[in-house]
Predict the 3D structure of the following.
Amino acid sequence: MGSAILNGILMGSIYGLTAVGLTLIFGVLKVINFAQGAFLMSGLFATYWFVKFTGTNPYLALVVVVPFTYFMGYYIQKFLIKPVFESEKDVREPIGVIIVTTGIWYMLDNLALMLFGAQYRTINVPSVSKAISIFGLYAPLSKIIGFFISITVSGLLFWFLKYSKMGKAIRATSQDREAASLMGINQYKIYNVTFGIGTAICGIAGAVLLPFYYVYPTVGMHLDIMDFVIVVLGGLGSIPGALVGGLIIGLIESVGSQFIAYSWTIEVIYIIFLIILFVKPSGLFGVKGEF
Amino acid sequence: MKFSEKQIKLILLMLSAIVVFLIPVFIKNQGYIQIFIVVMFFMYIATAWNFVGGFAGVLPLGNAAFIAIGAYTSTILFVQYGISPWVGMLAGGIISAIIGIIIGLPTFKLRGAYFALATIAFGEGIKVLFQNIDKIGSVNVGGARGILISYSGDSFANFQWVSRIPYYYIILVMLIILLAITVFLMNSKMGYYLIAGGEDPEAAASLGVNVAKYKLIAMALSAFFTAIAGTFYAQWILYILPKSVGSIDLSFEIAFIAIIGGRGTIIGPILGALLLKPLGELTRTYLGGALPGLHLFILGLILVLVMIYQPRGIQEVLTKIFNRFVKKMVTIKRS
C-alpha cells in the first residue's frame, strides 16, 4: 500500500509534467492540443534512438530531444495551426484548430508506424532501473529521477513565465491578445514559442519515461486521454493545477489497482472526469468563465 | 427540348439512383460489393453524426459508443433470446436515444473543446464498460472477447445472408431514408432553429429559440440512427467486440469523414465517405503490407489540408463545379 502511494506520486508527477505542456498551450492559445500524445511519442522515440545510437544515458538525450521537440512544435504551429487559427479568429467555438491538431496526431503516429513498425521497444538502463529505498518503501531510481526532473522543469517554467521578458510577453498574450499586440508583442510569434515550449516539455517527459516505459507508435493515445483528464481536473490553463491533477490521477491509478482490476481503474477515471466536466468544468485551480 | 437547371439536377439525381440500384446486377464480385457497403455504411453514420456535429455546431468525438450500444443490444437479444435483429435494431435505437439524451443534458452546457472532451470520455467509458463486463446475471456480454453471432442459414427474420447483395440493398435503403429525413429536417422549422442555435446560442436564445431542446432532439436522432447502424454492422460482420464497434478510432473516423466532406451540409458526409473510404481501402490493400498506417497518415494529411484550405470541406468546390456543369448543360440544350 505504501509502495503503491509512493509509485502513484512518482508516476503522477510525470503525468503532471506532460499535462503542464498541454495546459500551457491552452492557457495562451485557448486551444486544446490533441496532438500532445503524439509529441510525447516523438520525444520517446527521439530518446530511444539517441540512446540506441550513442549508447549513453537517456537523461543525456535531453540535449538533443528538447530542441528537436521544441522546433517540431514551433514549426507545426507556424505552418499548420496558425492559418486555421487566423481564419477562425472571430469564430466563437474554434473547433477547426482542434480538428487540425487531431490530423497532426494521426500524421505523427502513423509516420512513426511506417518508419519504426508497430513493435514495443524498451531500453535497459541498469544503473537507474534498480529499486531504491525511501523510508522503507521501494521505488525504481528512474521514477525518482523522473519525479525530480518533473518538479524542476515545472518550477523552471513557472519562474520563466513570471520573471523573464519572454515569459511576461506570453502571460500578457494569454490575458488579452489584442492589448498585447498593441503593446508591440507579436502574438503569433508568442504562439509559436508557447507551442514549442509545450511540446518540448513533452520531449522531456519522453526522456524521463523511457527507462521504465515502452515506446510504440500509438503510445501517446493512452497518455493523451489521461492528460485531458488531468488538465480539466486541475483547471485548464493552470500549471500548478496540472501538477496536482497529475498527482491525483497517478494516485488513483496506482492505489486503485490495489483494490480493483486496472481496467476498472480507467473506468473510474473516466467517470470522475465526466463528473468534473459537468459539475465544475473550471477544475480545482481554474478560472471561472469560458467553458 | 429544353430543361431548366432544376430539372437537370433532378434527372441527374434519378440517373445516379438508378445506377446505384443496378450496381449489384452488373458487378458480381463480392469483394467490390463489400467495398460499396463499407462506403455506404460510413456515409450513413457520418450523416447521423452530422445532426449534432454539423447542424448543432459542436464536435462529438464519441459516436462509436452509440454503434456499440446498438450492436450489443440487438446481438444480445438475438443470440440469447432469439429475438429478431430487426426488433433488436429498434430496441437498440431507442436505448441509444435515451442514453444520448441523458448524456446530452449536461454536455450541451459545455463549449467547444470541453464538449469534445466530454464525448471522448463518454465514448471510451462505454467501450471500457463493455470490455470489463463478462456477464450481467445470466446475460453474457462477452467482455473483451466480444460476441460471435452464429450463422443459421439465409433468412430475412434473422438478418443473415451469405451473399453480400442483401446487405447492399439494406444499407442503401437505410441511407436513402436517413438522407430523406435530413433533407426534410433541414427545411423545417426545427432545422433552422438547430442551425441558429449552433451558430450563436445566445443570439438564438434571445430570439426565443429553445436551443437546448433542439440540440437534445438532434442528439436523440443522431444516437438513434447511429445505433441502428450498429445492428447492421453486427449482422453484416457477425462478430462484435468492444474494440471494433466502440473504438475511439471509429469515433474519430466518423467525424473526420463528415468534416472533410463538409460538416453541416447534406452532401458533405456523402462526398467525404466517397473520397476517403475507397482511398483508404485501396492504400491499405496495395500498400498496407509495405507501409502499414499509410492510409491513416493520408487521412490526417487530408484533414489538415482541408482545414487550412477548405474549412467548409470539399463539398464547396465540388458543388461549384457541379453547378457550373449544370449551367453548361442548360445552354447546350438551348443552342
User: Anything to note?
Assistant: The CA atoms of residues 122 and 213 of chain A lie 7 Å apart.
